[in-house]
Amino acid sequence: MTSDGDARFGLRERTKPFVRAGVVLGIGLGGFFDGIVLHQLLQWHHMLSARTDPTVLSDLRLNVVADGLFDVGTYLFTVAGIVLLIRAWRRSDGSPSGRALLGSTILGWGVFNLLEGLVNHHLLEIHHVWPAGPGSVLLWDVGFLLWGVLFVAGGYAVIRLDERSIAGSRGERATDDRPT
Predict the structure, then answer these.
(1) What is the superkingdom listed in this entry's lineage (predicted)?
(2) Cβ of 17: how many Cβ atoms within 10 Å?
């Protein structure tokens, strides 16, 4: 065990920048999906719909502003992920891997679902996934968390399936160059 937090995942050093970029990008894309599909298209909920009455015009306006601020946050995560990806590609020792990038993006989306679900649905209770949907509100909120767990596990599995990303498959150390 080393002090390098990323080493425990067993990734090659040159792959880690792509995985970091993918996770940040996935957080942004997961937020965009939530905001665009669940908030705007399906209109299952708004950012503050458990605290306000979205049928009252002033409350709806407040929710639209809150949804917009949420979208700004997801936009910033997406831009940060793209910047990290460009930096990773520019590194001379970088090893671009489509599979590792895809897996880490899925993993990041799962992280978004877990954080958003735990904080907004359970801790703050500012909204729920589909309060007017069939079944209990808790069922939909737990389902959202399970979706996050599946994306984290599935994304990690995709990363681990990429032989070029895994340290040790060709004698490469999983840790950084610092002595342990």
Answers:
(1) Archaea
(2) 20
Which residues are 11's β-sheet partners? 166
Region of 134 on the Ramachandran plot (φ > 0 left; ψ -120 to 50 alpha; else beta): beta
Determine the Cα–Cα distance for residues 44 and 59; give it in Å rounded to an integer.
16
How far is residue 70 from each of residues 66, 67, 169, 171, measured CA to CA in Å? Answer: 6, 5, 41, 44
Contact 11, 159 (CB under 8 A): yes
For residues 75 and 15, is the Cβ–Cβ distance under 8 A? no
pLDDT in tens, the chain (180 residues): 444 444 547 788 888 899 999 999 999 999 999 999 999 999 999 999 999 998 899 999 999 999 999 999 999 999 999 999 999 999 867 667 889 999 999 999 999 999 999 999 999 999 999 999 999 999 999 999 999 999 999 999 999 888 666 665 555 444 444 343
50 close to 128: Cβ distance less than 8 angstroms? yes
Residue 82 and residue 23 in contact, taking contact as beta carbons nearer than 8 Å: no
Cα 35 to Cα 124: distance, rounded to the nearest angstrom:
18
